[in-house]
């Protein structure tokens, strides 16, 4: 599996990696279309189709992850709606023991997320996962998402981690591909980001469905 003796820094995704992606999937695929239907006075199917088209247009771009962008586009109080559904925000059950083991092994733990800073704060308030971390980076600080090389170049310049001695963990294959292209030495995919959905079949990357299998 992972050779921990060759890893100093662990870069961690948040949604779908440390936290159950069910909250985000439910919010963006159910709550937002429902609210969009009400505001536009259209049927739910029409609202879902319109929202899906809007998502696709900016998929993988920083706008896709930007709450301000969607608030402006849809005329909806995004953060207020998130707070109304915040009871669904949950840490994966296998994560606290994994992060504790990493800290005990002396690894540097940095959250590297595409999530908007306001969303990050809300999730920290609900889960306290920030207590395990040495650093937090939202890609909104750089104006470009993890899918793009310019983000990796800027983060590397600022954090000065050793690429070859860094592990990056994410549930997005497109993001893992970008990390691999940048030269991150160790990659791990999460194959079960949403507890309410079937596991993903992943062949291109070392992957897990339970962090207990990769403790240092």
UniProtKB/TrEMBL annotation:
One annotated GO biological process: DNA repair
One cellular component (GO) term of this entry: cytosol
Pfam families reported in the protein's UniProt record: Hydrolase
Protein's recorded name: HAD family hydrolase
Keyword Transcription regulation in annotation: no
Matches recorded under InterPro entries: HAD-like_hydrolase_sf (IPR050155), HAD-like_sf (IPR036412), HAD-SF_hydro_IA (IPR006439), HAD_sf (IPR023214)
Species assigned in the record: Pseudoalteromonas porphyrae
Molecular functions per Gene Ontology: phosphoglycolate phosphatase activity
This protein's UniProt keywords: Hydrolase
Source superkingdom: Bacteria
């Amino acid at each position: 599996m992972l050779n921990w003796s060759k890893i100093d820094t662990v870069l961690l995704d948040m949604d779908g990696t440390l936290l159950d992606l069910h909250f985000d999937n439910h919010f963006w695929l159910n709550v937002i279309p429902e609210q969009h239907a009400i505001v536009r006075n259209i049927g739910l199917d029409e609202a879902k189709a319109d929202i899906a088209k809007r998502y696709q247009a900016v998929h993988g771009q920083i706008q896709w992850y930007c709450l301000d962008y969607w608030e402006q586009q849809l005329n909806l109080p995004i953060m207020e709606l998130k707070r109304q559904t915040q009871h669904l925000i949950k840490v994966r059950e296998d994560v606290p023991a994994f992060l504790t083991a990493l800290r005990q092994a002396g690894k540097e733990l940095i959250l590297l997320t595409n999530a908007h800073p306001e969303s990050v704060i809300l999730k920290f308030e609900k889960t306290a996962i920030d207590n395990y971390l040495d650093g937090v980076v939202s890609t909104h600080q750089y104006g470009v998402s993890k899918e793009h090389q310019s983000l990796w170049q800027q983060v590397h310049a600022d954090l000065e981690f050793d690429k070859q001695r860094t592990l990056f963990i994410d549930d997005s294959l497109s993001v893992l591909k970008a990390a691999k292209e940048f030269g991150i030495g160790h990659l791990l995919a999460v194959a079960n980001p949403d507890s309410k959905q079937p596991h993903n079949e992943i062949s291109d990357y070392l992957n897990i469905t339970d962090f207990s299998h990769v403790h240092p």
